[in-house]
Please model this.
Amino acid sequence: MLGTSSAALIGLLFVAASLHLAEIVNEDLYRLRAQYTTLALVSTLIMATAILTPQPMWALGAELLIATLGSLSLPLILLGKVAKIRGAQGRGGYSIRRAASFIVGGVIGVMGAAAVAFGDERGMYLVTASFALCLVASIWTAWMIMIGIGRAESSKRH
Model:
């Protein structure tokens, strides 16, 4: 279910981005957030694929560990890039709290994946929680991108 949600959200993000392509391409913050949100969703889709692939638990745990570490790096890289954009806090609703949601989700996912890799199937509960948190944070981020674009378009009309 979470993998299907990720795939659907990736498609919706592409549709929304294509409707406002000029605003996203011309605004560093929107472009970075759209790019990293898409990558976070692709990461969850990759994890869902690994979960559905028949394999030993240790192999699944290793795959999930690699994917969650990669996913965890995304908000950290984004924070570094956004810090270089002047006034990023006020444009499009950029929020450290949203980045923290992705980071917390990534840390929970790493813990769960490590548990699975070492044979503790209960780690899948943490992986699922991580997955869900990252999906919610992705939806929240996509919504804030659209709010920011809507505000920019509204101010141009007036």
Q: What stands out?
A: The mean pLDDT is 84. The chain is about 85% helix and 0% strand.
